[in-house]
TrEMBL record:
CDD domains with a match to the protein in the record: Sortase_F
Record protein name field: Class F sortase
Domain of life: Bacteria
High-level lineage: Bacteria, Bacillati, Actinomycetota, Actinomycetes, Propionibacteriales
Keyword annotations: Hydrolase
Amino acid sequence: MAAALGGLTRLLLAAAAVVAVVLLVLNDDGGEPSAFRSLPPSVPVQVVVPSLGVEAGIDPVAVSADRVLDPPEDVDRVGWWDASAEPGADAGQTVLTGHAVHTGGGVLDRLPAVRPGARVDLRTDEGLMRYRVTDVETLGRDEVAARTEELFGQDRGDGRLVLVSCTEWDGAVYRSNVVVTARPLGEPRPAARL
């Protein structure tokens, strides 16, 4: 009987070790805690996309009178739409935009190459928010216009991150936009509780 219990104990310990290894493999966050959304909402100051080699400062930007969200003039910086959610908010979505330059040198030149599962970090004065890319879409201008509310609207309640830039240079203009969405990691912390 004792030998059977000893064998069962070893089997349970081995199973627990396998589960722990699987969880470590699935948690590809560099061993850091997952409470990235537990920060109070705050203005983003830096974006980092390790898989693309992007590390850029962020400036607030607004939608123009003709309903266009233009990135900052500096091609090395990313714009945060100041009417979108701050990272850490449990409502709305954080919208960032940056330049693609057909000759190279734009901060988001390589955005179409990002893949689902990639990590995106936003630094705020409150700390670090971490996101995981879920979708990468290339959309024509008409499709972006038709889906504006879905893609960038602030009535969504999941606090996701949206990155947008131009793509498909045809020799004269960019014909499309790449729209990357990412989900926040950790649990939301509503501003009302701060």
